[in-house]
Amino acid sequence: MTSPVSLPFTRQEHEKRLDAIKKEMHSIGIEVLLDSDPANIFYTTGYDAVSYYTPQTMIISIYRTEPILVIRKQDLLAAKVRTHLSEDSIIGWQDYMVDNEHSHPFELVLSLLNEHSLSRLKVGIDVDAGMTTHFDTSFLIKGLKKPITEVRRLINFVRMIKTDREIDYMKQAARITESSMRAGLDAIAAGVRESDVIANVYHAQIKGTSEYGGDYPANPPVMPTGRRSATPHLTWSDEPLMPNQNLTLELSGARFRYHCPLARTVYIGKTPPKDLSDATKHASEGVQATLRSISPGMALSEVHAVWEKINIKHNLGKTSRLGYSVGCAFPPSWLERTASIRPEDTTVLVPNMTFHLIAGIWKNHWGAEVSETFRVTDRGAETLCDMSQELYIR
Amino acid sequence: MTSPVSLPFTRQEHEKRLDAIKKEMHSIGIEVLLDSDPANIFYTTGYDAVSYYTPQTMIISIYRTEPILVIRKQDLLAAKVRTHLSEDSIIGWQDYMVDNEHSHPFELVLSLLNEHSLSRLKVGIDVDAGMTTHFDTSFLIKGLKKPITEVRRLINFVRMIKTDREIDYMKQAARITESSMRAGLDAIAAGVRESDVIANVYHAQIKGTSEYGGDYPANPPVMPTGRRSATPHLTWSDEPLMPNQNLTLELSGARFRYHCPLARTVYIGKTPPKDLSDATKHASEGVQATLRSISPGMALSEVHAVWEKINIKHNLGKTSRLGYSVGCAFPPSWLERTASIRPEDTTVLVPNMTFHLIAGIWKNHWGAEVSETFRVTDRGAETLCDMSQELYIR
């Protein structure tokens, strides 16, 4: 350890997570897991550096106490100060291999597997790991020269039930979400450039509170304005906001890679159109009814059914999923890519699961959005942010 | 078109790019190219929305004027207002397919290929496209039921030579890089939280200038401090900066997805240690000597050789590559993932190629970094930012 660093999670918490992962590995009959998803690596080892644009992976053997982290050589120190791993569990590949068409960093992974006699075991590879291309994963599969088990998001699913410490960080992220949303709302006015609004949002996202600073969110805020609010994923422009314009703002604070997303709807002017204020009110009614209905043991399909009644009652016309599991995340998004709140998902709620529930109403020429991030509690659901769901008038 | 939008590039420029891509496709013997990399999609069609966390792709046929963009249904409008594509070239997949273990959005891609009689042609797939996993790409390869050509970063390489309009945006990004670096340097002082420094950086990155706002950079700033500056990719903490501490700050402004990265070194205190001030001075000397040597027709290996002389002369010990091609980019990084400035790279310089040249000196317990983004001109190299390479004292 070259620098005294206090990590966000104890070694014990990381060991508990690793045990849960190994249990899942055992249950699907694999002894070694290769996973390259930066969020899964962070969750398992604590490693957090902007190094995931080059190939890196984590080797978990059910017979080895620690995972082996394989990263670029120039990032070795980053792993030493940002994980509890011992030095012989952090291995660096040589720099000439980056973007080199004649050699691949995962050559080192293959030789490590042989060195530790792991390639003879039953190997599973997360073939759906974020930031890892078909080319990278194929290099491993071809190199192993034996059948492997294709794993999809095994660790993502383990991540769904949070520990109390993870919930703490999501609540800290929630405070940052609130102040960032307020910074955005405060800046919104006719004539202000959209980019100036988002500049204030970003400032608040990173500044955090007086007790703690913010981490970078896994994706940028989205703020589609006017007719563009009919679609959810557009960022800002540098055009000035117009009088009598509506917009939606969706963003998240982040704390140690934990997120707490939130969306709100704004009208710039004195008298919002009735369809916009009605849609916002009804979306909020749907969010509240759905949250009130939640209890552990319920399936996500049942949660969706509660929403669907309000959706039909007010003819809101929302056809997309109502939400998804959230937590620790790296680019490109704060999503965990596991369970969704929708008719087909039979995932059963367990305390300390966390979801982003999004009532996004996208019509032909305008949109409204009200969302909440909630935690499943012993008896119901607790929203992490505390912010009126009204249509904000600016 | 549901909203009047002025796009950053003309239809003519996009057509020229597409022609260049089709020429490359022809030269490697493919008639259809599937590419899912968000930067390649943006480059070819102009599409720019935060939708790349779900599978999306672009189908280019050398026999069809426009590419076909296949995205999630709720993002259709985003593509209509952010591309020149006609409506029948933008196809949306149904929402139930997102994160659904029983169906895949690329089913639609396969049926489109059949519908347009494209699957009978010679198909190439970019198997190394960012944001697209082994699982996603394998779904296409298996579904095509015939041999395909594995393509690696074909469009990335086409992107290397910029048009004048692209250079304009990189220069606009450079102005934002300068103001963001200044915002960071101005905030740095003993006792200030690292997160408060970066909050100011982000504010400047998005605020931009009085003439134009900023886009979100493809990756966060990095600011390793003190002993952690011995490694390049750590972000900030919320600890206060310490007296007599050094740090490096690397960041980029962004304008319409175009980047212009820059790194500088800072010492907090009155008298910097000699090894730090020497390393910064020598790194700067190396950067300047290398830039002065550049001319079109030179190979990147030759560019590196100029640097290597300074590296050896001052015993700087830099073993990693000296830089890489940059331009338009989406998360996780501003890199184009093509050519590198290093001994093995024989890429020949052509006017309007753009590179980030990084003299990063990472010792055991400290680091110094001086970088410049430059454009190859008709006769030499032009740096895009104008900012002293000194060791900044705060």
TrEMBL record, chains A, B:
Keywords: Hydrolase. It comes from the Bacteria. GO terms for molecular function: hydrolase activity. Residues 17-161 form the Creatinase N-terminal domain. InterPro entries: Creatin/AminoP/Spt16_N (IPR029149), Creatinase/aminopeptidase-like (IPR036005), Creatinase_N (IPR000587), Pept_M24 (IPR000994), Peptidase_M24B (IPR050659). Transmembrane segments: none annotated. Residues 169-378 form the Peptidase M24 domain. It holds the Pfam family Peptidase_M24. This is Ectoine hydrolase DoeA. It comes from Halomonas salipaludis. The lineage of its organism: Bacteria, Pseudomonadati, Pseudomonadota, Gammaproteobacteria, Oceanospirillales.
